[in-house]
TrEMBL record:
It comes from Dokdonella fugitiva. GO terms for molecular function: ATP binding; protein serine/threonine kinase activity. Its EC number is 2.7.11.1. Pfam families: Pkinase, TPR_10, TPR_12. This is Serine/threonine-protein kinase. The lineage of its organism: Bacteria, Pseudomonadati, Pseudomonadota, Gammaproteobacteria, Lysobacterales. TPR repeats lie at residues 459-492.
Length: 891
């Protein structure tokens, strides 16, 4: 009787999941009329599926053992052959195809005790597996209910051994073990990209076939990242996970992310290379160790292990120790960004290139210093952390070990000297409390003296301090540091790849200062060095080419930039998977060209891919995610998709605020972009407040003369126009144009944008002659730089036609309106706000001139505004009022 009830309940439950939630109760009551037990059981199953905590605390008493199906039992088209595994949740049978269609061996997974909780988890695993199709993940084939009503699913049968046992049985060396582990990383990265965190990675869940193919198994407690809740109590998860491989946040019962799987991968890698896990304790002591104790280095573990492991210890010492320990960092944010990043560092090790993982000895000293002197160090924390990051260099070849050790010691001494100089408890010093900027200034002044006999070390620290200035928009202050770093890197004989990185920093800074000829020359030199170092078409060379493309955009040379960026995307696509960080960066470079060239829809399509990739590759709070969301929002606004643009920019601003704080210029830049969209949607006062905040933050960080302020000045000018403050618009527009002319000269696409805004402001203040000149220049420059049609020239000509109409020059206004509308129709389409505005200006001019065409034009303008703007915006209301006037006159 119990088994029959389960069979019926499972069938009704499966159907209920397909019914809309608001209709489900009524539907369920109709299905269970007269059967209270069935109704209660299905309700409990549904509650479990929705993740009810109360349900988990009160298991259903009717979850009896369903019994052994026995050999020969049928599961759809398959027949059980032998039981091959059993656990607390269920059992696994090897089965074979029984319908004669073809020969196939599979694994059947079924529940032993089908309580509602287990049913829910079982079905969750089936849903997870259904979305994963990867050669290194065991594939789901089918699923259903057995003859006894118990759910099962059919999976790929993997005839293999656990990863560690497979390697040990064959006596594999380090390189072969890493090769297999890279397959594991590929599978985990694929799962992350499909929004799945495994949460229980361990060697027994990683099988290797006789052919050497890795297969990842058991997604029973995997988490769908996109879910708003796990649907399962955290305590339940903690009880089921394997503690030997659990991350600190899992032990503490905190939220898990892709970084949790990175930790488990680090533990698996440690065991694979060293022969043991990083902690040699058990039970409660193990949990405490995972949370509080530092893991042992793989080389130290191997040195005390079996003979085969001891043989591997010398090779593990150095880079592989650092790679494993980075993956095992206590704090998720200090681990690798994802499985792909871990794999990339292993590949760097295999190819003899410097790895990204670095030692921590000086960092711990810095953190202890900060703990003693929180008030003194708070403002300088970012400075210290970044300086410390420069204090370890990978060792790859024995003959370089002594030289590298000397460099690391010199770097350490320099950084600790900076820290000690800021120690309020230093009785020999002044006990000063320094700001972050003061620490940077002191550090940059001391490099030449303290490291005069260590030019290679000085080159690295000059570059690091330059990066810190750069991060805060201090481009002028960073430039001499980058220049000195580049000179020393060449004379000190740093590796070509490291010199390329320094030169890229220099070229990027020159670009931000709009020293574009210098920047292009730097990138040409850097490209040659990258080709010499890693070869033409290498990842290093393609990264340089991407920066070259961006610099050409700044110079207004869009066609050249586009050709280079397309080449980078093609080159990366041939060499790397399309789910890599490198591919994301390549797409982003091409998107930047298309956005700047006003090919907005192309940019949107590319940036949607970039955002999706970055979400899969990184945690939510990551600069790559926020930056790509900012770029997507800006592109959506350019394409006229205002509501979607606002959503993307709000999320970008939120992440920037959490990541950097609201006093950072990057946050302020995103806030200004959001304000532009809100202003375009017609919420002028809200936008005004945001622009004031963004401008104040950026001006304080960058200085009054920073060219990067030009876009904020333009946004302030447009907002002032919309608020009816033409004088303020004129002032802001003139300041934007002054900055742009000083940076670019008279013939540049950005100059055209400022000419357009200032021309519109002057038209409102009555400065008709200057307004006409600027609007003509904007239209002509737009044609020359963007090509035809383009929206800058279209809006400039529509604004000029409006100016002519207001000043009685109808003969010039009407054909110019028609030309402008045709250009905008071709450039952005009839659903865009720029087209809607131009059409309204034409109707307004016709109405003022008493032209009978005013009513149909304004009717079309009202319809265009409804397509372009959100409901209830002032632009639409203004046009409806004009249409009412035109209709009244026509009557």
């Amino acid at each position: 009787m119990q088994r029959e009830l389960w069979r019926r309940a499972s069938a009704v439950f499966e159907q209920a999941l397909e019914v809309e939630a608001d209709r489900r109760s009524e539907w369920l009551a109709a299905q269970c009329v007269g059967d209270e037990a069935l109704l209660v059981l299905v309700q409990r199953l549904l509650a479990a599926d929705e993740g009810s905590g109360e349900f988990l605390e009160r298991p259903f008493a009717g979850g009896a053992d369903v019994g052994d199906p026995g050999e020969g039992a049928s599961f759809g088209a398959y027949r059980a052959v032998e039981r091959i595994g059993m656990g607390g949740m269920g059992e696994v049978w090897r089965a074979q195809r029984a319908d004669g269609a073809f020969e196939q061996h599979v694994a059947i997974k079924r529940l032993l005790y089908p309580t509602p909780d287990l049913v829910r988890r079982f079905q969750h695993e089936r849903r997870v597996l259904a979305r994963l199709h990867h050669p290194n993940i065991a594939q789901l084939f089918d699923g259903g209910l057995g003859a006894d009503g118990v759910p099962y699913f059919v999976m790929e049968y993997v005839d293999g051994e656990p990863l560690d046992a497979w390697c040990d049985a064959r006596g594999l060396g380090i390189d072969a073990r890493i090769d297999l582990f890279l397959q594991v990383c590929d599978a985990v990265q694929y799962a992350h990209r499909n929004l799945v965190v495994h949460r229980d990675l361990k060697p027994s869940n990683i099988l290797v076939t006789a052919e050497g193919q890795v297969k990842l198994l058991d997604f029973g407690i995997a988490k769908l990242i996109e879910a708003t809740a796990d649907g399962e109590a955290t305590a339940t998860i903690v009880q089921r996970l394997t503690p030997d491989y659990a991350a600190p946040e899992q032990v503490r019962g905190e939220a898990v992310t892709t970084a949790t799987d990175v930790y488990a991968l680090g533990m698996v890698l440690c065991e694979l290379l060293a022969g043991e896990r990083a902690y040699r304790v058990a039970g409660g002591d193990l949990a405490n160790a995972i949370v509080a104790a530092e893991p042992a280095a793989p080389s130290a573990i191997a040195a005390r292990g079996a003979a085969a492991a001891r043989d591997r210890a010398p090779t593990l010492r150095g880079d592989l120790d650092r790679i494993v320990l980075r993956a095992l960092a206590k704090e998720p944010e200090r681990r690798y960004a994802g499985a792909e990043s871990l794999a990339a560092d292993l590949r760097r090790f295999r190819s003899g290139h410097p790895v990204l993982a670095r030692g921590d000895d000086v960092w711990y000293r810095a953190r202890k210093f900060a703990g003693r002197n929180r008030a003194a160090i708070a403002a300088a924390a970012a400075v210290v952390a970044a300086l410390v990051a420069a204090t370890a260099v990978s060792l790859h070849h024995a003959r370089r070990a002594q030289r590298q050790a000397q460099r690391a010691e010199a770097e350490k001494a320099f950084v600790l000297g900076i820290l000690d100089a800021n120690d309020p408890n230093d009785t020999q010093g002044k006990g000063e409390t320094l700001t972050a900027r003061q620490i940077l200034d002191r550090a940059s002044e001391r490099i030449g003296k303290d490291l005069a006999d260590q030019p290679a070390v000085a080159a690295e620290i000059y570059d690091e301090i330059g990066n810190l200035y750069w991060d805060y928009g201090q481009y002028e202050r960073a430039l001499p540091l980058y220049e000195q770093s580049a000179r020393l890197a060449e004379t000190a004989g740093l590796p070509d790849a490291q010199r390329v990185g320094i030169l890229v920093d220099l070229g990027t800074d020159q670009r931000m200062l709009r020293r574009l000829d210098d920047a292009l020359a730097t990138f040409e030199r850097t490209d040659a060095l990258a080709r010499e170092s890693d070869g033409e078409g290498s990842e290093l060379e393609l990264r340089v080419r991407a920066e070259q493309s961006t610099t050409l955009v700044y110079a207004g040379r869009f066609a050249e930039a586009d050709a280079i960026a397309r080449g980078v995307v093609d080159g990366v696509g041939r060499a790397r998977a399309h789910d890599s960080e490198v591919y994301s960066d390549a797409l982003n470079a091409l998107a930047y060209v298309r956005l700047s060239w006003q090919h907005y829809e192309d940019a949107v399509e590319l940036l949607r891919q970039v955002v999706a990739l970055n979400r899969a590759l990184h945690p939510r709070i990551h600069s790559a995610v926020s930056t790509s969301l900012n770029d997507l929002g800006y592109s959506l606004a350019g394409a006229g998709h205002l509501v979607e643009a606002e959503a993307a920019l709000r999320e970008a601003a939120q992440i920037h605020a959490e990541l950097l704080g609201k006093a950072h210029p990057h946050y302020a830049g995103t806030l200004a972009n959001l304000a532009r969209v809100i202003d375009r949607e017609g919420r002028f006062e809200e936008a005004h407040g945001m622009l004031d905040e963004a401008f104040a933050t950026r001006r304080q960080a960058l200085g009054d003369e920073a060219i990067s302020l030009d876009g904020t000045w333009r946004a302030l000018a447009l907002n002032a126009l919309h608020r009816g403050d033409a004088a303020a618009a004129r002032q802001a527009g003139r300041r934007a144009l002054e900055l742009d002319l000083g940076a670019y000269g008279p013939r540049h696409p950005v100059v055209a944008l400022s000419q357009l805004v200032l021309g519109q402001a002057l038209a409102e203040t009555g400065d008709a002659d200057e307004a006409e000149r600027l609007l003509r220049d904007a239209a002509e420059t737009g044609d020359a730089m963007f090509g035809t049609p383009n929206d800058t020239s279209g809006v400039a000509r529509a604004s000029l036609a409006r100016l002519f109409a207001r000043h009685g020059r109808a003969d010039a206004a009407w054909p110019l309106f028609e030309r402008a509308l045709a250009e905008l129709r071709g450039a952005v389409g009839e659903d865009h706000c720029a087209y809607a505005d131009a059409l309204a200006w034409q109707g307004e001019a016709q109405l003022a001139a008493g032209d009978a065409a005013a009513a149909p034009t304004l009717r079309a303008a009202v319809a265009a505004a409804r397509r372009a703007y959100p409901d209830g915006n002032p632009f639409g209301r203004e046009r409806e009022a004009l249409l009412a006037q035109a209709d009244a006159r026509a009557r």
